[in-house]
Amino acid sequence: MIEMIKTLRKNTLFSGGIVMVVGSMSINAINYLYHLVMGRALGPSSYSVLASVFSLYYMIAIIPQSASVSIVKFVSETKDKKDLSILYSSLYKFINILALVLAFFIIFFSPLITKFLHFDSFLLIPLLAPITYFSLGTLLNQSVVQGLLRFKEVVSINLVAALGKLFLGLLFVILGFSAGGAVLGLAIATFITFFYSRRLISVRVNVVSERQILSDFFKFSVPALFQALSFTFIFTADLILVKHFFSGYDAGLYAALSTLGKIIFFASSPIAMVMFPAVSGRRARGESYRKVFYITFFATFLIAGGIVSFYYFFPEFAIRVLYGSSYLAASTYLFWMGGFIAIYTLNYFLVNFLLSVGKVKVVTVPLLSSVLQIIAISLWHESLLVVIQISLAIMIFMMILLVLYLASYQLKVYGKK
């Protein structure tokens, strides 16, 4: 028994998985504490404003998120420190330019976005510009340490971001700055997290970059971009549309439901984060990765199913304890939201697995699903339940397509070893 424990501790997948799951769950608990505190402090209407800003932030972060997947893959396949230095330098220069461009577009389109979402303050959207700029740099550094399987550092970066966002945001809200104060706290926390993450990267930036690296990087990043684009829109477009079509109170209820549903995703996603570099690295070395897939998928299923079951039996308890009695009207929809996010989580895992083994064409499946979701909700939004059921139905449709995709390519996907 002792020898088995020692063997497991030496296993990178097992030890890394434990660090990522435990660490990420702790960080997600802090993140949810943030939303619960803000939900109670701001009330449904003001909280819907904050939730909408976060949804916009997630959408803006699509490009860095897609780049993150690619960075993890390329870093996990580097052979030595020289290759890593060249890769990092090439990406650092590119991402810095990209960050500046995105920040400019956010400021340019901020008046239009502010009007669409019916915000009273015109400063909320411009604050997303510095948040986006420093977030891209942080994601580069975090992706590098993840690709190197340094999972403790990955957790520490997220911990700094979560604690900074919580304490600074709460401070500004207490001082009377409402939702704008929470966004300002996020901006300052993002700035601090960037400089912390940079200190963890012992790589020189002045190494001459290579165009071939960027060329290969873009070939993989384009499909990864569509993957991130699709899943982020599925994750956030519903909330944005609800904020536009429904009252502030109903949008606040939906924001609470969405946040509770996302517990499922954030509790399970660390497993996919461990799986991706492990499978990609093994495939690059010609090793078998079948067991990695089975173990990580089953673990994801258990976590998602367990939380959905809890929402089915104790919806009012979950709402009352986490958000308070003012949000109890949303309890009848919690199980439906849980089902939507649970299947979303499994779909996310399957697509990331297929990307890790080079099956980039699979991104057409979530892309199609995200477009269908936006169209369907725009046409039919009689109630919050209808919106959730539309998203659930599309996720079921998406899973059917992914299972068919896996079945048709199973010999290549699972390998013959």
Descriptive account of the structure:
Helices cover 84% and strands 0% of the residues. The protein is mainly α. The chain has one domain. The longest helix is centred in the first third of the chain and has 49 residues, at 12-60. The radius of gyration is 21 Å and the shape is globular. The chain starts with a helix and ends with a helix. Mean pLDDT is 80; it is low at 413-417.
Largest sheet: none
**How helix-rich are the residues, as a percent range?**
over 70%
Quaternary: single chain
Order of helices and strands: HHHHHHHHHHHHHH
Q: Based on DSSP secondary structure assignment, what is the total number of beta strands?
A: 0
Strand content: under 5%
Cα radius of gyration in angstroms: 21 Å
What's the number of structural domains?
1
- How many individual helices? 14
Shape: globular
Structural class: mainly alpha
* End-to-end gap: 28 Å
Roughly what is the average pLDDT, rounded to an integer?
80
Low-pLDDT segments: 413-417
Structure described in brief:
The protein has helices spanning 2-10, 12-60, 62-76, 81-116, 128-147, 151-199, 211-245, 248-284, 290-313, 315-322, 334-356, 364-379, 384-408, 410-414. By secondary structure, the chain is an all-alpha fold.
Write the layout of secondary structure elements.
Layout: H1 2-10, H2 12-60, H3 62-76, H4 81-116, H5 128-147, H6 151-199, H7 211-245, H8 248-284, H9 290-313, H10 315-322, H11 334-356, H12 364-379, H13 384-408, H14 410-414
Features:
single chain; 417 residues; 84% helix; globular; disordered C terminus
